[in-house]
Amino acid sequence: MADTEQSPAKQEFIRKSIQFWNPGKTQFWQDAGVDLVIDRRQDYFLYDMDGRRLIDVHLNGGTYNIGHRHPELVEVLNRGTQRFDMGNHHFPALGRTALAEKLAKSCGGDLHYTIYGSGGGEAIDIAIKTARHAKQKKKIVSILKAYHGHTGLAVAAGADRFSKLFLADKPDEFINVPFNDLNAMEDALKAKDVAAVIMETIPATYGFPMPLPGYLTEVKKLTERYDALYIADEVQTGLMRTGEMWGYQRYGIHPDIVVIGKGISGGMYPIACVVVREPYAGWLKQDGFGHMATMGGAELGCLVAMKTLEILERPQTRPMVNYISELMASGLTEIMKLYSDFFVGIRQCGVVMGLEFDYPEGAKPVMKHLYENGVWAIFSTLDPRVLQFKPGVLMTAALCEELLERVERAIGLARAECKGLGKAGGKRYAA
Amino acid sequence: MNAIVEELLAGEKRQTGAADMMLQLAEWAAASYARYDRAAVDRITKAASEAAYALAGSLAEAAVKETGFGVAEHKKIKNEICSRGIYEAYKNEDFCSKRVVAEQKIVEVPRPAGVVFALTPSTNPVCTVYFKIMLALMTRNAIIISPHPFAKKCSAEGALAMAKAAEQAGAPAGIIQVITEPTLPLIEHVMKSPRVSVILATGGSPVVRAAYSSGNPAIGVGPGNAPAFVDSTADLNAAAKRIIGSKSFDNSILCTNESTVVAEESIADKLLQALGKAGGYVAKPDEVDSIREYLFGLGSFNVEVVGKSAAEIASRIGIKVPSSTKVILTPIDRVGIDEALSREKLCPVLGFVRVPHVHAGISTSRALIRMSGAGHSAAIHSSNTATILAYAGAVKALRVVVNAPCSQGAAGFGTHLAPSFTIGTGFFGRSSVGENIGPKHLVNWTRIAYSDEASETFGDFSSLEVWNNQAPLPVGRDSPMTLGRLQEGAERADAALFAQAAGGAMTDEIAAMRDEIRRIVLEELRAAFRK
Ligand SMILES: Cc1ncc(COP(=O)(O)O)c(C=O)c1O
Question: How high is the ipTM of this complex?
Fold first, then answer.
């Protein structure tokens, strides 16, 4: 728990959350020393209901990529509500088609049609359904410890921690292979009975292990060789976070299907998108009612998404992302030199970052000390040695400097705790 | 996209939001550039100045074409002066390194302003853009140019060429930016932004006033209204040549140009003759009336004549002048609010007023500057030092040019004033700086001051740099990729990853690595499953 005392109001609120909302999750955070209840939010700041300010480098996986309540998004949403609502999903809709056109241009090549959902998981389901229809095959290959969301097909494709819980694992249809292992991938595809490989461009919840050189291009080639599609899950790697608009562009591949979520909504209005190459979007012609959802592609969300893309396409964004990621690289490297027996590595692609701690579940105490020092970053559920560290793409120079200063302090404290040094010594975070 | 959606997306914040991003990028660039060393700054400044110099002629023509103001040939000269000329003028000065003042036990550390917001005029568009960028680069500042809308194209072209050259020479990304579609609300928004460190405003009074009231530190240059006093001790032929040369330079578009000649009665006729010989046309009384009407008939100065040639102005009014005419002289009886022709005229029309004696000459000159141009410039043609001194002490101008063309001389060309296209008008002009603006006005110095007690010895700073052993500076050009250490195969792959071009084919090395990585990954997984 944070050094600061909880107000009675907060204590009462947390009690109610346990009572009415989600006892397991609420208790988990209390035990982890992160008693965060988010009240106001602005730019890259969260304010706890007791008023404490936190720099947000979790961003809900990039949802708040351009900051919380970006003023241009607030404006476009306000303007939109003067004229639109979610819309009627049966008809051609002004906002939906406009965004689809913009995405086709942004994604490049013959990535062409956009199918909408209201969240990432739903979009993953759409992508898998689309691939299955296109290839008339059922099998899907994904990465061991991948995370694609919790809807039916998405959860089946992800790590079994979540699929088994609800008896949703389907091992005969969903094959897992280790990341960065081309031979395993080839073995899985060889029989030509796979509809698609689904890949987070950089697996987020697994702690952002980076694709090794040539890995993604080779996987793409393998899918071509063995008659499968390549689905890029760009939910966390899209929208300039890797330094390019789409992570796959950074790695020089051209997927068959792209899944976009989180940040495209600006955190303001739920929306997710699946962009499909022309040849594989057959069901849209065969039976255009084949997939639908009342809230998929809500038109207010489309407006917000278009504005988000507009902001990210401005010429200043790219150098800004470069500055932020360069400064983080050099600043964190300096910190690593100070605590080299604890903070041992930086996984980075642009502002997609994982910080490695050579200690069992080492990212958890770091998370706690960051929290106490005014920074919110989350450990990787599927590899808790790694802290997910996700600065926003529009952070200012001053804020980045402040962030590094706080990170240095927190890592020092976490190290002291783990190594049994100093006042906090002793508490263990065993695996 | 369809019109309905486009309309919904086109809120007010679109423009200001884009401008805020420019400012934010400028902050990044400034933070990085502030730590560059002298040699790097010199390289960058030189590269930018050469790029600007190379475009001096073509952009001079482009400026005349776009604005309709001035003379391309003269603009070219100004562009050259403001690029290579400014570089040469300051190349031996150092605004980047510490200075040790051992006898005072003081060390001075240069601290750049940060983000300079520069408003540039339509009258001297390209050279002012060049000039302000040169100043910013020399002093390790980032700069955002907001050109006058009438001159936005040529101004942007010049700025972008310098930006490209500066970045190629190693400057951080975004060090020079331009607002390509300036509008009033946008400029106001940027001027008030707390991200702006200092505003360098050149332009009409409203712009300069707005800069001063923005809440940000501002250095503004408003209008001038320079008197040119010629007393009985002057070399009349030389004075006439200088006045005509100055007043016709770039069709009188510099704010330092002479507004009205104030002539001592005893030499007035002779001076008029000499002015005529040098290319002046003395208007007849009815012609003076029509000139007054054409220039000021609408109340304010008719912008259509700004920077037009004497011949063109004459023909528009319907006055016949000799083809050699460079300047039209308009004799007037008095100066003040009841004589419009004694106001600032950014065209080669020059007032001419007679005064009985030196004392009257000084008070008439004071009167001219009372109307506009406080703190700006004045000229005197005289060989009497007492008169020169009395004039300088009385007239509210912060530079008094003696026996030289005022347009150029007040701007530091042909005099030893600092070469500048931004003239500080000081307290008289409600500005904080009263000198010709130069690089020194964009840097502050942190002063390390030791105790003056003799027992406290001064440290040895001689071999130190301010930024020693700093971590690599971000320059905004690439976003890093690294694998970390705990990731399988990371150590072997790191180098290859950096070398890999996006989409590059698998090298043999990578192919060989593949099996090795597979082995390690499998081992790890096996271990994981055993747990
Ligand atoms: C890579 C990835 N894909 C898909 C999803 C699922 O998105 P949603 O939570 O919107 O359903 C997530 C969410 O964390 C994700 O990180």
Answer: 0.94
